[in-house]
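Lab meeting, item 3. Inverse folding demo.
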């Protein structure tokens, strides 16, 4: 689902822990061929810290979807053009060893009891908000 969302909203790439995922029938069912149109980059978990550091040197802001004492509310956060979105695991969130590599944490305002969204849904909401903000910036520059 995240692959499909990323392709629909024009993400430059989707980073996955293994390209073997695209062989999975469930992946193919949910992606609806999006992997054919979206660049997929394989970064094994052991390589992720180095990858994030490399992206920082390229000018990317590393944004985590996480509820912390310093998190920005999604409705108030202004995404830089060069944004890299780091999503956590379905139940544990972003691993502790990666948290200090984040430049910023953004949280999705919630009203319910559960306080936990599926990773794909969280990613989709942030990708949409990024896209919405970029569209507004483009209109102002025309």
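The presenter then showed the designed sequence:
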């Amino acid at each position: 689902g995240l692959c499909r969302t990323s392709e629909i909203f024009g993400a430059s790439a989707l980073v996955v822990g293994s390209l073997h995922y695209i062989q999975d029938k469930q992946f193919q069912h949910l992606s609806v061929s999006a992997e054919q149109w979206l660049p997929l980059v394989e970064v094994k978990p052991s390589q992720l810290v180095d990858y994030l550091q490399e992206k920082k040197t390229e000018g990317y802001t590393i944004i985590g979807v996480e509820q912390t004492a310093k998190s920005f509310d999604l409705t108030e956060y202004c995404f830089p053009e060069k944004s890299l979105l780091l999503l956590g695991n379905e139940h544990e969130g972003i691993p502790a060893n990666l948290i200090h590599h984040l430049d910023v944490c953004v949280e999705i305002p919630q009203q319910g009891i559960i306080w936990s969204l599926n990773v794909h849904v969280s990613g989709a909401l942030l990708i949409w908000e990024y896209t919405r903000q970029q569209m507004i910036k483009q209109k102002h520059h025309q």
